[in-house]
Write a structure and sequence with these properties.
The complex is a heterodimer of chains A (197) and B (364). By secondary structure, chain A is an alpha/beta fold. Chain A folds into 2 domains: 4-52, Helicase, Ruva Protein, domain 3; 72-196, Dna Topoisomerase Vi A Subunit, Chain: A, domain 2 (3-Layer(aba) Sandwich), CATH 3.40.1360.10. Chain A is 44% helix and 11% strand. Chain A contains 8 helices and 6 strands, in the order H-H-H-E-E-H-E-H-E-H-E-H-E-H. In chain A, the strands form 2 sheets. A 4-stranded parallel sheet of chain A has the order 4-3-5-6. In chain A, strands 1-2 form a two-stranded antiparallel sheet. Chain B is α/β, with parallel strands linked by helices. Chain B has 9 helices and 15 strands. In chain B, the strands form 3 sheets. A 6-stranded antiparallel sheet of chain B has the order 2-1-4-5-6-7, covered by helices on one side.
Chain lengths: 197, 364
């Protein structure tokens, strides 16, 4: 145990995801030995991110204004809505340049082990958006794991009666990879989801 | 398939040990507590990524070391494959196949097919249903590595569904109201979907295994009684959803999932009587051995030639049974036998002999 401020910093860093006690210690001593201006800049960035970054009032993506860049963009289609778990998923899909509709960020997935149910996610807000009638296709792009699949099924069950087309991202083989290196689960899924040519 | 070389670094009692093995029968001889079982446990770990003795990895790493390494050269159809596992307690294992790292340790499953019989297997017969479910599931994975994913998916969904039921149960107990069960239907569907896959596979396996068990028990017991196995399911693969609906209130009242493959059992009988509670020690022991031998002969009948390990088996058997067991395993691609007293092992299996001493193994 160190004394005072340095130990406080190690403890705080250690609470960040992916940072163990050893990394926290290394980072703390880096901060201690680094240039004061650099650290002031880091501290300012940390403060600003909490003060200035907000969540878009429409899609709950991160935004610097009332609405995010995508929700403000008049060129985006209003009839297609893509549901993702986290803001970083929006960035991932945006990089593809394939999707020109709008997004809805749930803020996680249904996960009873972590105490997360529909009320902890932005599902009520999603339903309100859908009831406006503009959306004709809902694309469920939650993660392809147990929790993401459960969330997708939950949303599909709720949305289907509204007459909106619901689709789920395909899961299967990675592009550019070799078939022989695919693990059995991925390959099994790819078989299930095969399509006619 | 056979193991050509096994190397342990900081595993159990071994700081660094390597042993070159041969196809056919090999006997590992050494007094009790010298580390014979540690060697076969390491092989078991390569095959299943779990120890047959302990449920956590910590005891596998030598006291004082922070990680253990198991290296295993496997020869299959004339080709040699090196599997390397680094065990770091509390962290994900790292694995390498043929010197190149794999993404997940799970990817090495299937590289070594192994059937291991150890004294702990008495729990298959005498222990809780969980032991028998694990027996079936491990064999499922040995037959089709893909089943490891099915099993993991099912367990994950089950955990989530139980957490949901548990929170509803607590909400009712503390606040006197229902709790949020709006996602229960979703978990029902996923549980039924994954459960059906697991159950279908287990039922098919139990069917395929039954004649092998009967034959194996006949051999080790010299025809005293007929071994019968029956899979006892809480639902059929297509009825899981309906069965869940019918126990819904009870599930909420108890806060846990009551239907599905995780509640099933494999009933083991000798003639008309259940083995558990009725069979003598000798019968139970023969039965447990027969279950492992049945796995072995089933895999062989399907063209998989697994390595067979008999840990401390012969001391428990009378002379007649020793000879019959020796007959059964003599033509195995590789069988590794551990014993404290060399004379316990029939002469016909004395192919290669290894002397196990504290921390080292020598060929004699």
């Amino acid at each position: 145990m160190y004394e005072g401020a340095i130990q406080d910093l190690i403890d705080e860093l250690g609470r960040l995801p992916g940072i163990g006690p050893k990394s926290a210690q290394r980072l703390a001593f880096h901060v201690l030995s680094a240039d004061t201006t650099d650290i002031k800049r880091l501290a300012a960035a940390l403060t600003r991110v909490k003060e200035e970054v907000r969540f878009c009032s429409t899609c709950y993506n991160v935004a610097e204004a009332e609405q995010c860049r995508i929700c403000r963009d008049p060129r985006r289609r209003d009839d297609a809505l893509c549901v993702v778990e986290e803001p970083k998923d929006v960035i991932a899909i945006e990089r593809t340049n394939e999707f020109r509709g709008r997004y809805h960020v749930l803020g996680g997935a249904i996960n009873p082990l972590e105490g997360i149910g529909p009320d902890q996610l932005r599902i009520r807000e999603l339903m309100a958006r859908l009831s406006s009638g503009d959306v004709s296709e809902l694309i469920l792009a939650t993660d392809p794991n147990t929790e993401g699949e459960a969330t997708a099924t939950y949303l599909a069950l709720m949305v289907k009666p509204m007459g909106i087309t619901v689709s789920r991202l395909a899961s299967g083989l990675p592009v550019g990879g070799d078939l022989e290196y695919a693990d059995e689960i991925t390959l099994g899924r790819a078989f299930e989801g095969r399509r006619k040519l | 398939m056979h193991v050509r070389r096994l190397e342990l670094v900081d595993v159990r009692s071994y700081e660094r040990a390597a042993v070159e093995l041969e196809p056919g029968a090999s006997v590992l001889i050494g007094p009790n507590g010298v580390g014979k079982t540690n060697l076969v446990e390491a092989l078991g770990y390569v095959a299943t990524l779990a120890s047959h003795r302990v449920s956590t990895d910590q005891p596998l790493v030598r006291v004082g070391a922070d990680r253990g390494v198991i290296r295993c050269d496997i020869v299959h159809e004339g080709r040699e494959l090196l599997v390397e596992l680094e065990i770091v307690p509390g962290k994900a294992n790292r694995a390498r196949l043929g010197r190149s790292p794999v993404r997940r340790a799970r990817d090495v499953l299937g590289a070594l097919r192994l059937v291991l019989f150890a004294p702990e297997d008495l729990a298959l017969v005498r222990g809780e249903p969980e032991q028998r479910r694990r027996y079936l599931d491990d064999l499922l994975v040995a037959r089709q590595p893909r089943m490891a994913g099915v099993r993991a998916d099912y367990e994950r969904v089950l955990k989530q569904r139980n957490a949901l039921l548990r929170s509803a149960y607590l909400a009712r107990k503390v606040a006197g109201r229902g709790g949020d069960l709006s996602t229960l239907e979703v978990w029902d569907h996923h549980l039924a979907e994954h459960g059906a896959k697991l159950l279908t596979a287990r039922l098919a396996l139990a069917d395929a295994l039954a004649p092998h068990l009967e034959e194996a028990y006949r051999l080790v017991s010299a025809g005293q009684g007929k071994a019968v196995m029956e899979y006892k399911a809480t639902a059929t693969p297509t009825s899981i959803l309906d069965e869940l609906a019918s126990v819904k209130d009870e599930e909420i009242a108890r806060g846990t999932t009551l239907v599905g493959p995780h509640r099933d059992d494999l009933l083991l009988r000798l003639g008309d009587l259940p083995v558990r509670g009725y069979a003598s020690h000798g019968e139970s022991w023969s039965y447990a051995l027969a279950l492992r031998l049945a796995s072995y002969t089933l895999l062989r009948s399907e063209g998989i030639e697994p390595v067979l390990v008999l840990d401390d088996v012969f001391a428990e058997l009378d002379t007649g049974r020793r000879e019959r067991l020796a007959d059964l395993v003599r033509d195995a691609a590789q069988v590794l036998i551990t014993c404290a007293v060399e004379a316990d092992v029939p002469q016909s299996l004395h192919g290669n002999r290894y002397l196990v001493q504290p921390g080292e193994v020598h060929r004699v």
